Amino acid sequence: MTDPRRARYVALFAAESRSLLASARRTLAVWLDAPDDPAPADEIFRVLHTIKGMAASLEFDAITNLSHDTETDLVTVRDAKAPVERSWLATLEATMDALALACDAAVEAEQGEPSPGTDARDEAPESVRIVRVDLARLDALFDDLGGLVTARQELERRAEADSLSPVARAAQAMGRRLNAVQDRILDVRLAPLSEVFERIPPVVRDLARQLGKETKVEVRGDDLEVDRAVLDQIAEPLIHLLRNAVDHGLETPEVRRALGKRAAGTIRVHARRDRDAVVVELSDDGRGIDRQAVAARAVAQGILEKDTDLDDDGLLALLARPGFSTATAISDVSGRGVGLDVVASRLRDLGAALGLTTVLGHGSTFVVRLPTRLGIVRALIASVGEEHYVMPLTHVAEFLPWEPDAVRDLDGRSVIDLRGEPIPIVDLRRLLLYRGAPVPSRRPAFVLEANGQRVALLADALHGQVDAVVQPMDRPRGMPRWITGATVLDNGRPAVMLDLASVV
Amino acid sequence: MAHRVLICDDAIFMRTMIADILTGAGYEVVGEAESGLQAVERYKALLPDIVTMDIVMPDMGGIDAVKAITSAHPDAKILMCSAMGQQALVVEAIQAGAKDFVVKPFQPARVLEAVQRVLAG
Questions:
Q1: What is the pLDDT of residue A117?
Q2: N or C: which end of chain B has fewer CB within 10 A?
Q3: Fold held by A4-111
Q4: What ipTM score was computed for the predicted complex, to two decimals?
């Protein structure tokens, strides 16, 4: 798009149509509960009318026509002054969904990519004065903050020698202020989940209709806030999980009735706060995942021992393996060459964790644990040769003294015995393909624990801990999945952030 | 001195578009309202030279807002903004005291002509 003024109008259209359609959806839900009350008709009419006006101004003809026709129908029904039929309301709901998808499509066609990032915030109370800020400016502020945190650590390290000196006290005071600034900047970056959740019901219902299935979508907790960078990346993996739920999880109405279930399957998208994270649960009440079928396939592929008891974590680990899939036929909707492995790695890049519980015959729940704030994480600094790496401490279980004798060979893998239990060893040198300085004689090792598994990681040296401000990186193709970001150490040197969970 | 305009429309999109057209031609947008009630309030507070008024708005529609404004300020200069297919409502608005109307989607030249006509009239 070359015309900046049009770009601005399209962005306004995107934000405003989304917020209007979301409010129409809420109104429609009220109407479905009480079809005799004519009041919701006016509110929905107003939404359609406003969207029509905006779409006409941008020459989005399909949207203009669809909203005009729906508006006309609505007026006919309203003026008939008779109670509306539920079936008509269901059709109206389908039309509103189609309209939402058409608006998203028109905006995407023009902007080149989905942008859930614009928000009109026109519901803000009168007394709140709002300034729109380009995210790039906030990112720049965040970069500067990273530099300040680093400088502060250097200052604190030097002041340590005499903790009562005026310099040390000034450093402490500055540290407290800096923490407050850090919190404030991170707060400014927060945005409500509703920006993404609003798009979910139409997508799910549209998909269900294509597949001849019936659904009820329940969304809760969409007022919770997460960092803008997390929010902007989360829509695609969530929608992918929901597509899977509708496509593979939910049964057809006939099958459901035969099973004694309600014809319409329920898809729940519930968000809740859990300590410093926001947990999003995506559940369906469909057929659940067939553990035995997955296990059989894994055994056949030689990646699982026969007769292994597969718990939910183990099941998820298998399903998230690149290329592993139980779908026998590639369906039109979720068989787009992107599997759970890609979803899982996308989420990992965001610092989010994926969990699963599933009960055969009763449905599945995917649990996505989102960081609410961009990362300032307590991290361990380790080095290989001259290269420094940082890794979040969350997964570090314990440190091991290095004793070469403790390492032995088990089925072709190097393991180290920890309290009688063999733990596989991962050498950072090998992982990072490092071929520089010679291997030191003594090397520290530490135990990582993630997804219920443990490995011992071997470095050349450890250099203590830091508060690392993690900058998300644009990932070039082919970058190993365990590299998740970059930070600057207090000596001013850049260090790569490793995601230890994916090493395990 | 530039003429002072109050823009009333429930869509930020439309307000932005009208404001762009008018400020580009040297008008001063002194206020915006996103409902009929707000339009009446802002009119009283700002006493603008001209008002652009959408018809379909929450709380109080544009036509009722025109009635409320003109009953207290018979000389108020109000330009209705209507969508296609709202001829009946436009007639009602003119009877209520609006001076002229433009039809969405807006063509900048048409909007400016109508504003000049209303200010001159």
A1: 43
A2: N
A3: Four Helix Bundle (Hemerythrin (Met), subunit A) (1.20.120)
A4: 0.89
Residues A348 and A293: their CA atoms lie apart, in Å, by 27
Cβ contact (<8 Å) for B12 and A5? no
Laid out side by side, the sheet with A494-498 consists of A461-469, A376-384, A387-392, A494-498, A483-488, A471-472
Closest CA to A29 of A78, A97, A77: A97
Span A376-502 CATH architecture: Beta Barrel (2.40)
Any CB–CB contact under 8 A between B37 and chain A?
Answer: no
Residues A427-436 pLDDT 10s: 888 888 888 8
- A462: distance to nearest CA of chain B, Å? 56
Residues A133, A134, A139, A145: what is their CA dihedral angle, to the nearest 10 degrees?
A: -30
Compute the distance between CA of residue A433 and CA of residue A413 in angstroms, rounded to an integer.
18
Is B12 close to A16, i.e. CB distance below 8 A? yes
Contact A456, A418 (CB under 8 A): yes
Match domain A191-371 to its CATH number in 2.40.50.140, 1.10.10.10, 3.90.1720.10, 3.30.565.10.
Answer: 3.30.565.10
Min distance A46 CA to chain B CA atoms (Å): 6
pLDDT, one tens digit per residue, over B7-37 is 999 998 999 999 999 999 999 999 999 999 9
Task: Report CA-CA distances (Å) from A134 to A119, A188, A316, A408, B118.
Answer: 12, 12, 38, 55, 39
Fold (topology level) of B4-120: Rossmann fold (3.40.50)
B24 touches chain A (CB under 8 A): no
Count of CB pairs separated by less than 8 Å, A with B: 48
A248 touches chain B (CB under 8 A): no
- Where are chain A's structural domains? 4-111, 142-189, 191-371, 376-502
